[in-house]
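Example (one chain per record):
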Amino acid sequence: MTDLERRTITIGRDDQRAVLRGRLRQQRVVFALLAVVVALMVIVGALSTVGRPSGGGVALVVSGCAGVAVVLALLVWSQIALTRRQLPLGSEFSLQVTDDTLDLDGPGGSDRIRWRQLSNLRRVGGGIYLTITPSRAQLGLPGRLLGESALARAAELIAASAGTDTVEHGFPASAPVAGALASSITFTVEDQRIVRTALILGSRTILAIAGGLGLIAVGCVIGAAAGLGSSRMLEVSAMAAALALLLLVVLVVTVHHSVRRSLVVGTAQTLVVTTGALELTGPGGETRFAWNQLSDLRRRRGVVTVRSVSSKTTLAFVGRLVGDDMFAEIAQRIEAAGAAPTG
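Predicted structure:
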């Protein structure tokens, strides 16, 4: 194995902005569709006001534009949140291109991703983006982390490995050290259902907002029926109900696609508890999480979750992957690492 290049950088705001701008530029089709929807709303609203000075068309345009604005805000917010989670400000990232893997060390752990799992490598603005298969998850990195020679070499390695099988069994597990706890499963449709349900029910903020909008809609309908307000209350009710429904649809669709990408049916995932870290091997590659970077281990609704301290993300595992003995061992090691001095 020959090392081609290694670079280490500290993430600054310019890095976050560069990656975010690249992500948004890749959403141009979505933005164009939203613009078309707004244009259609304006046309329909204008036509509906012909010979009808009641202002109903204006209300339709306002409602439609408000819905589009919510979708746009959610899209931009999700990209901002994703960029901040993947690239925490002030964190240190190190990247190494080798003949066999792309090695990435960051605050969330250490990843070794084989070239046959990567595709769509490209530089967009100040960021570099590639897709991890079979999960289809996109990885965005600051452009200064990968030089031009390393980028060209990475493209060659990805192209050379494009014909190899990437789905049948995922990655082979690393050999666990003596005395280490290890568990391995193959993902099923039931696993997807369990994780999907847990993630939706765990999205308390979005569910609370949707519930509040639903209460506003119901209250307006009751008020209009009781004659306590004008007919405008029905328009407000319709708008609130539409926004609540839109939030729920976005939540369900986002979770569905995320689970389908990360838990590909028929692929394997292995979890190994070692002295220094929690090691995960799955369809997306091999990742190592140091114990002092983990916290808040929980088992709920058939899913085990643990918090990554540095990247501020929650890792979710299918409950049957983590047995009671392994769960207790993980909890003990996290507690011991948290109590140990870090300086």
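Caption: The helical segments are 13-25, 28-48, 56-86, 148-160, 189-202, 204-225, 232-262, 324-339.
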